Amino acid sequence: MIIDELITVGEQLYRRGLQTPRSGNLSARTDRSFFITRTGTNMGLLTRAQFVQVCIDENIPVPPEASVETSVHRGVYNRTEARAVVHAHPPYAIALAQVSGEEGITPIHNEGLAGLRWIPVIGTSVAGEDTGEDVASIAAQLQRSPALVIRGHGAFTIGGSPDEALYRMFLLEEVCKINAIVKSIG
Ligand SMILES: [Zn+2]
Question: Taking the model in full, what pTM does it have?
Fold first, then answer.
């Protein structure tokens, strides 16, 4: 079941240090709806009861118990081919985005280049708040690249499955870690 795949993704993100006990959200699409984590859930300790089913139709109100980023996930499903969306707070990606300009982040190792040719960076629309980001700007970037960093906040990745979106989040952080090391050693 798709929810079980999302539970595994949550555990892996948490174990890898890409989430705090209160950050992040995950979803996967099933036809005309998607399952997303409830607001305030610990990604490392997810259960089936912590997922909410949301209609893909943007005219239908988002259930209040769903993640604060539910509108972003829904916007992405309506504007891209994504079947899964991962949102995390990867430390190296957040750090590197702070010193990256409008040109975004370009991987420098082969796996990074093969998997993520280029990673756009945009500013947060909700500075200092833990509320939902602007849907349109995130969806527009995810039409160009399957991974995106939001300066001062975190990252979004998409994929054809929860596992692919997870891989891209790991790869994004790996790319940013390597780039940050290279910057620090000159
Ligand atoms: Zn976040």
Answer: 0.96
